[in-house]
Amino acid sequence: KLHIGVLAVQGAFIEHERVLESLGAEAFEIRQLRDLDRPMDGLVLPGGESTVQGKLLRDLGLFEPLQKKIREGLPVLATCAGLILLAEKLSNDKSTYFATLPVTVERNAYGRQLGSFFVQHDLKHVGNIPMTFIRAPIINQVNDGVEVLAHVDSPSIGDKIVAVQYKKQLALAFHPELDLDRKVHQYFLGMI
Ligand code: GLN
């Protein structure tokens, strides 16, 4: 059985836990430092508010140990705010967080208020899936070694990269945990 740590300081973590458990994995919540003592085969960074998550990660002393594990190759599934936490660079924000994923990300790229939408679209290696975007970031630039898994054309801002993989880091601008389709999580567990 795979043991997946789900960052549970803020945001849509419960939804990820339910999907992972329905696929036969064991999901446990990471809320404090001692949660990192448990065996962990993979990590989920959920959607939410990246500024809040980043601050809590530091306040709780989770930031450095998690960054080290990701750098050392711990498989990560990051959605929305999670993608922002992984990005090496943010085009419209001076902060960076784990900075383990060599891409440039733009926060709230679709606009803050009207930025939520839904499409059905292909994700490379995974297939056709529902994609729900909620005040989503986009990936503006990818560096060497980063594989683009999907770009989505939207009327507001045009064709943009919304999913990438770099080594064992799978990062998505949308929220697969909010739809019934479980193929993304299945792919992630397979990747481990
Ligand atoms: N707008 C959020 C942020 O910048 C991300 C939105 C989300 O995770 N749904 O952190």
Automatic annotation (TrEMBL):
<dbReference type="InterPro" id="IPR021196">
    <property type="entry name" value="PdxT/SNO_CS"/>
</dbReference>
<protein>
    <recommendedName>
        <fullName>Pyridoxal 5'-phosphate synthase subunit PdxT</fullName>
        <ecNumber>4.3.3.6</ecNumber>
        <ecNumber>3.5.1.2</ecNumber>
    </recommendedName>
</protein>
<keyword id="KW-0456">Lyase</keyword>
<keyword id="KW-0378">Hydrolase</keyword>
<dbReference type="GO" id="GO:0042823">
    <property type="term" value="P:pyridoxal phosphate biosynthetic process"/>
</dbReference>
<comment type="pathway">
    <text>Cofactor biosynthesis; pyridoxal 5'-phosphate biosynthesis.</text>
</comment>
<feature type="active site" description="Charge relay system">
    <location>
        <position position="175"/>
    </location>
</feature>
<feature type="active site" description="Charge relay system">
    <location>
        <position position="177"/>
    </location>
</feature>
<dbReference type="InterPro" id="IPR029062">
    <property type="entry name" value="Class_I_gatase-like"/>
</dbReference>
<feature type="binding site">
    <location>
        <begin position="134"/>
        <end position="135"/>
    </location>
    <ligand>
        <name>L-glutamine</name>
    </ligand>
</feature>
<dbReference type="GO" id="GO:0036381">
    <property type="term" value="F:pyridoxal 5'-phosphate synthase (glutamine hydrolysing) activity"/>
</dbReference>
<feature type="binding site">
    <location>
        <begin position="48"/>
        <end position="50"/>
    </location>
    <ligand>
        <name>L-glutamine</name>
    </ligand>
</feature>
<dbReference type="InterPro" id="IPR002161">
    <property type="entry name" value="PdxT/SNO"/>
</dbReference>
<keyword id="KW-0315">Glutamine amidotransferase</keyword>
<dbReference type="GO" id="GO:1903600">
    <property type="term" value="C:glutaminase complex"/>
</dbReference>
<comment type="subunit">
    <text>In the presence of PdxS, forms a dodecamer of heterodimers. Only shows activity in the heterodimer.</text>
</comment>
<dbReference type="GO" id="GO:0004359">
    <property type="term" value="F:glutaminase activity"/>
</dbReference>
<dbReference type="GO" id="GO:0006543">
    <property type="term" value="P:L-glutamine catabolic process"/>
</dbReference>
<keyword id="KW-0663">Pyridoxal phosphate</keyword>
<dbReference type="Pfam" id="PF01174">
    <property type="entry name" value="SNO"/>
</dbReference>
<feature type="active site" description="Nucleophile">
    <location>
        <position position="80"/>
    </location>
</feature>
<dbReference type="GO" id="GO:0008614">
    <property type="term" value="P:pyridoxine metabolic process"/>
</dbReference>
<feature type="binding site">
    <location>
        <position position="107"/>
    </location>
    <ligand>
        <name>L-glutamine</name>
    </ligand>
</feature>
<comment type="function">
    <text>Catalyzes the hydrolysis of glutamine to glutamate and ammonia as part of the biosynthesis of pyridoxal 5'-phosphate. The resulting ammonia molecule is channeled to the active site of PdxS.</text>
</comment>
<dbReference type="GO" id="GO:0005829">
    <property type="term" value="C:cytosol"/>
</dbReference>
<comment type="similarity">
    <text>Belongs to the glutaminase PdxT/SNO family.</text>
</comment>
